[in-house]
TrEMBL record:
Pfam families documented for this protein: Acid_phosphat_B
InterPro entries associated with the record: Acid_phosphat_B-like (IPR005519), HAD-like_sf (IPR036412), HAD_sf (IPR023214)
Origin superkingdom: Eukaryota
Name of this chain's protein: Acid phosphatase
Keyword Signal attached: yes
Keyword Cell cycle: no
Protein keywords: Signal
SUPFAM superfamilies membership: HAD-like (SSF56784)
Signal peptide limits: 1-22
Length: 215
C-alpha cells in the first residue's frame, strides 16, 4: 500500500474516532461534525461521555486535580506502523525503531480533550509503558510536535519496571501521584490495562483500538 493510500486510511480512522460530539474550546478539523445532534448525544461514543463529564467538573484552585493520558494510540497514533507490518505480530525492535523516529501523528479528538482540560485548570500526566531510557527524548519531541504541550509530567517506564505488566507499572505511577496529593479525576487510554488496577481515577474512558491488546 502506497503512502497516499496510507494517508487516506489514516484520515478515515481519525474520522471514525471523531464521531459523536466534541469540545468547544478548539477548532475542529474540517471532517468533524459541525455540532452535536440529538442522535449523537444518545450514542455511547467515548467522546460523548467524556465531553459530558468534563462539562460537569471543575478543577480546584490548589492545582491538584489531575487527568491521566496514555500515549500510544491514545495521544499518538501508531496506525501507519501497524499498517506497514500488515497488522501482524508485534515486533519490538521494529516498533522501537518506529517510535524513536518521533513521527507518530497526534489523534485530533484526544488533543482537543487534552487542551480543554488544561484550559479548565486540570493537570495532565502522560503515563506510557515506553522505555524512558531509549525512547524518552523521541517521545517528548513527538508529543511537542503534535501539539501535546504544557503537560505536568511525562512518566515513562524506568529500568525498575522493565518486564512488568502495563497494569502493574501504570498502577505504580498513579499511586505515586496520589501519594503526592493529586486527585485523579479522569483517565483515558486505548487499553484496559491503562484503566484497571489501583487508583484508576474517578472516571475512565476507553478509546477503541482494533489493532492489538496489551495485558
Ligand atoms: Mg496505548
Amino acid at each position: 500500500m502506497g503512502s497516499s493510500q496510507a494517508l487516506a486510511l489514516w484520515v478515515v480512522i481519525t474520522h471514525l474516532l471523531s464521531l459523536g460530539g466534541g469540545f468547544v474550546s478548539c477548532a475542529k478539523p474540517s471532517f468533524w461534525p459541525s455540532s452535536a445532534t440529538h442522535d449523537e448525544a444518545g450514542c455511547l461514543s467515548w467522546r460523548v461521555q467524556v465531553s459530558a463529564y468534563v462539562d460537569q467538573i471543575a478543577a480546584a484552585a490548589d492545582g491538584l486535580d489531575a487527568w491521566i493520558f496514555d500515549i500510544d494510540d491514545t495521544c499518538l497514533s501508531n496506525l501507519l506502523y501497524y499498517q506497514a507490518k500488515r497488522f501482524g505480530a508485534y515486533d519490538p525492535m521494529a516498533f522501537k525503531k518506529w517510535a524513536s523516529q518521533g513521527a507518530c501523528p497526534g489523534i485530533p479528538p484526544v488533543l482537543e480533550l487534552f487542551a480543554a482540560l488544561q484550559d479548565k485548570g486540570f493537570k495532565a500526566f502522560l503515563v506510557s509503558g515506553r522505555d524512558e531510557e531509549t525512547l524518552g527524548s523521541g517521545t517528548s519531541q513527538n508529543l511537542e510536535s503534535e501539539g501535546f504541550s504544557g503537560y505536568e509530567r511525562l512518566m515513562m517506564r524506568t529500568p525498575e519496571y522493565r518486564g512488568q505488566s502495563s497494569s502493574v507499572f501504570k498502577s505504580a505511577m498513579r499511586k505515586q501521584l496520589v501519594d503526592e496529593g493529586y486527585r485523579i479525576r479522569g483517565n483515558v487510554g486505548d487499553q484496559w490495562s491503562d484503566l484497571q488496577g489501583d487508583n484508576v481515577g474517578d472516571r475512565v474512558f476507553k478509546i477503541p483500538n482494533p489493532m492489538y491488546f496489551v495485558p
